[in-house]
Amino acid sequence: MKYYEVHVIDNVAKIKYDSGFDEQDLIMGAQIPEVEDLSNHKIHIQVVSARGKLLDIYKPSSNLSMRVILSDQAKLLLESYRKGNIRFYPCPVLRGKEKVLGYWITDVVIFDDEWVDIPRSTFLFKKRKLIGSEDETPRKYEKTEQIIQFNDLFELKEFREKEMWYMDELRHYRILIKEGCPHHILAIYTTGPKCLIVSEELKNELQKQKMDKGLEFKPLEISGPEWYGPNGLRNQYYK
User: Fold this and answer.
1) Which of 25, 40, 48, 116 is most buried when burial is the number of CB atoms within 10 A of its CB?
2) Cis peptide before 119 (omega within 30 of 0)
3) Which domain of life does this protein belong to (predicted)?
């Protein structure tokens, strides 16, 4: 199957802190790889634009990064393509100052890094080396970049743990999914990208049902520079 990263471009919610929360409350934060029941966690109010009609997919405020806000209809569609990999919690939403119901926040409980074809994928390694004295302000670094590959997920994780300094970065460059993957919805954490990934069939269904307003679908196997560059492929699809 062909896969796409779902990028929420314009539909970004803003946080409205709930004055009723206190220090003892458990507050939902960014997506993490550890699975836990969040039903007793509270969620700060998400404020969406009051202009135009309500949309089906929003990007939440930054404190809820790597999650997605979905309407009832979008939630049902995703569940029809795969069950059990995402938990959905009711999300408080304001449209301007008006309270609206029927929205959910995602919590991924099954990550699919084992479906990444590691030997055929490539990664961008940014290495930083401190130049001069540690007492200098600001500190100066020499930065080098290289495209690297790994034989398997274990080797990648070992590289992170043993070869990388805390200032180094390792990001996905070109990600390929193994042949035979049965899932129409994927979530990848260790190797990235940390966003919702959908099959071409599900992408087409989102577009058919007009749930794609404010979204862009980047082919997973295309690298960032090839997609976003001045003459990037994105320009063929989005203006």
Assistant:
1) 116
2) no
3) Bacteria
